[in-house]
Amino acid sequence: RLALHPVQPAAWHRRLKTVWLGFDTDRGIEVAWNCVHLAHMPERDRERLRNEKDLLRDVKHHHIVRFFSAWEFDDGNEVVFITERVTSGTLKQYIARSHPFD
């Protein structure tokens, strides 16, 4: 189960994507609820996004943001990705803080 809260102070929103801060009550962790709006995307990009969604389900690596779930709404206009929440800074800084190299 997820509890959703807007990212500080409201959801981050662009034409193609809205990001919400969520809390996964089963795992006890904060997650990013990424809602990608497909209505304004070319069909080629929509298909690429759908393929990436399927590919991410199989990727498991401690240097890659964890992927928890994804689905597409029945109307085909939005895809939701639930991922690990990444705090501010660069990806390199995040990895150094949370996944130090051995």
How is this structure best described in words?
- With 102 residues, the protein is α+β, with helices and mostly antiparallel strands.
- The chain has helices spanning 43-56, 91-98, and strands at 2-6, 12-13, 17-24, 29-37, 67-72, 78-84.
- The longest helix has 14 residues, at 43-56.
- It is globular and about 40 Å long.
- Residues 6-11 have low confidence and may be disordered.
Q: What does the largest sheet look like?
A: 6 strands, antiparallel
Low-confidence stretches: 6-11
State the secondary-structure class: alpha+beta
Q: Give the beta-strand count.
A: 6
The oligomeric status of these chains comes to single chain
Which strand-content bin applies to the residues? 35-45%
If you compute it from the alpha carbons, what radius of gyration comes out, rounded to the nearest whole angstrom? 14 Å
- The span between the termini is 34 Å
Number of helices: 2
- Shape category: globular
Entry summary:
The chain is built from 2 helices and 6 strands, in the order ββββαββα. 22% of the residues lie in helices and 36% in strands. The N and C termini lie far apart (34 Å).
Please write out the topology.
Elements: E1 2-6, E2 12-13, E3 17-24, E4 29-37, H1 43-56, E5 67-72, E6 78-84, H2 91-98
Antiparallel strand pairs: 1-3, 2-3, 3-4, 4-6, 5-6
Q: Which features does this protein show?
A:
single chain; 102 residues; alpha+beta; 6-stranded antiparallel beta sheet; 6 strands; 22% helix
